[in-house]
Design a protein that fits this description.
Blueprint (H helix, E strand, L loop, with lengths): L3 H14 L17 E2 L12 E10 L5 H10 L2 E7 L4 E6 L5 H10 L3 E12 L25 H8 L5 E7 L38 E3 L17 H10 L14 E7 L7 E3 H13 L4 E4 L1 E2 L7 H10 L2 E5 L22 E7 L18 E4 L5 E2 L5
Parallel strand pairs: 6-8, 6-10, 7-8, 10-12, 12-13, 13-14
Antiparallel strand pairs: 1-15, 2-4, 2-5, 3-4, 5-9, 5-11
C-alpha cells in the first residue's frame, strides 16, 4: 500500500525531473494573453559542428614548445580558452577538414583529446491562474500528471532554489516571470563595473554567451522563443493570470547560449554558460537542447560533471533509442545528468520522444504543454 509520505516523495522526484519538460508539439499561437505551445525538432541536414574549429586539451606532460610547434605545423590559431576544462578552441586556417586535423592532433601524442566544437539545437518545450486547467501535466482528472498541487503542499516554506535556464534567453519582463527572475546579489545595475569580479559587467540577471558573445542582454530572441517557454514551465508565478510553473520556490537564472534563426549554440559556448551558472550558485540546470551528432562531446561532459549541478537534459525528439544512438548531452556519462523523455496525457511515450531503458531516467509531461510566450513591449 502506498503511504502518503511515499506519494509525496514520488511527487517531489517527478517535480524535480519536470523542471525540464521536453516540448515538441505543433506550434500554436493561442488566444491567451501571453502564452503559447511551441515546437522544436532536430533535422538531419543540420550541421553537426563548426566546420573550421576544434577543441583541444593537451596532456599535462606536453611542453609549451612542442604544442606551439604542433599548432604552427597544423595552421591552428587559438581563439578561446576554456579554463574550466583546461582546453582551448582552435581555428583551422589550413583548409583541412575537422576530421583530418583531429587525426593529426591525436597522432601527435601531445593531446588528451581533440574534438569538434559541436552545434546544439533547441528541443522544442489548484491555483487560480487563469489557464491552470489547461496545464494537464501538473494536474488532471485521470491522474496522468506530476501531482503538482500535492507537492506544493509540501514545498511551501522551503528554501528558494536557483535554476539556470541554459537556453535561448528569457523575456524577464513577462508578467508571469518578472518576479521569478534571479538577480545577481554581487552586481550593481547600470554602473558599468564588474562589482563581483567574475569577468562580466552588469550581469544582473545572467549573461549571453551565444556564438562567443559577451553581453548582459538575456532577452529571448529566437524564432520559437524557446527559453521563455521553458522558464514558464519551470517557474511561472502563482497569480490570477496566465499559467503556473512546476516549482514555486524557484528563481530563474538566465544563461543564454542558443540563438539565431535555428536556436543554435556551440559546445564552447555551452561550457562557458555552465561554468557561469556554477560560479553564481545555481543548484539545478535545465538543458532542453541537444544533438545526436555530438554523443562523444568529452569537453561538454567534463564541464557538466565539474559543475556539480543537477543537470536535467532532454532525452531528444527524434523518436530513437538512446541506448543505441546516443543523444548529447542527455546520454553523456556524467553522473549528475538526468535524462527526461516526454509522455502524453494518457501516460504513453510521446511519438517523437527518444527513449532508452539504460540511458533515459524518467518520463515527464511533454505533449501540448502550454507556457509563457514573449510579447512586444
Amino acid at each position: 500500500m502506498t503511504t502518503k509520505t511515499n506519494k509525496i516523495t514520488s511527487c517531489l522526484i517527478i517535480l524535480i525531473m519536470t523542471v525540464q519538460m521536453t516540448v515538441a508539439t505543433a506550434f500554436i499561437q493561442t488566444p491567451m494573453i501571453y502564452a503559447a505551445d511551441i515546437a522544436g525538432s532536430l533535422e538531419s541536414e543540420q550541421p553537426a559542428y563548426v566546420e573550421d574549429e576544434v577543441i583541444v586539451k593537451y596532456k599535462q606532460t606536453s611542453s609549451a614548445m612542442s604544442t606551439s610547434s604542433l599548432e604552427e605545423n597544423l595552421d591552428l590559431t587559438s581563439v578561446e580558452e576554456v579554463p574550466v576544462i583546461d582546453a582551448e578552441v582552435m581555428k583551422i586556417t589550413s583548409g583541412e577538414s575537422v576530421e583530418e586535423v583531429i587525426e593529426s592532433l591525436e597522432g601527435s601524442g601531445l593531446v588528451e583529446y581533440a574534438q569538434p566544437n559541436y552545434i546544439y539545437y533547441t528541443e522544442s518545450v489548484v491555483p487560480d491562474d487563469y489557464y491552470f486547467n489547461n496545464l494537464w501535466g501538473l494536474h488532471n482528472l485521470n491522474d496522468i500528471d506530476i501531482d503538482a498541487p500535492e507537492a506544493w503542499d509540501y514545498t511551501n516554506g522551503l528554501d528558494e532554489v536557483v535554476v539556470a535556464v541554459i537556453d535561448t534567453g528569457v523575456q524577464i519582463t513577462h508578467p508571469d516571470l518578472a518576479g521569478k527572475i534571479w538577480t545577481n546579489p554581487g552586481e550593481i545595475a547600470g554602473d558599468g563595473i564588474d562589482n563581483d569580479g567574475n569577468g562580466y559587467i552588469d550581469d544582473i540577471h545572467g549573461w549571453d554567451f551565444h556564438l562567443g558573445g559577451s553581453n548582459n542582454t538575456v532577452y529571448d530572441d529566437t524564432y520559437d522563443n524557446h527559453g521563455t517557454h521553458v522558464a514558464g514551465t519551470i517557474a511561472a508565478a502563482a497569480n490570477s493570470a496566465g499559467v503556473r510553473g512546476v516549482a514555486p520556490n524557484v528563481k530563474i537564472m538566465t544563461v543564454k547560449f542558443l540563438g539565431g534563426s535555428q536556436g543554435t549554440g556551440y559546445t564552447s559556448d555551452a561550457i562557458r554558460a555552465i561554468e557561469y551558472a556554477r560560479v553564481k550558485g545555481a543548484k539545478v540546470a535545465n538543458a532542453s537542447w541537444g544533438s545526436p551528432s555530438s554523443s562523444e562531446d568529452t569537453a561538454l561532459n567534463n564541464a557538466i560533471a565539474a559543475s556539480g549541478m543537477v543537470f536535467v537534459a532532454a532525452a531528444g525528439n527524434n523518436g530513437t533509442n538512446n541506448d543505441s544512438t546516443p543523444f548529447s548531452p542527455s546520454s553523456l556519462p556524467a553522473t549528475n545528468i538526468i535524462s527526461v523523455a516526454a509522455v502524453d496525457n494518457v501516460g504513453g511515450l510521446a511519438s517523437f520522444s527518444n527513449y532508452g531503458a539504460n540511458s533515459v531516467d524518467v518520463g515527464a509531461p511533454g505533449v501540448n504543454i502550454l507556457s509563457t510566450y514573449p510579447f512586444s513591449s
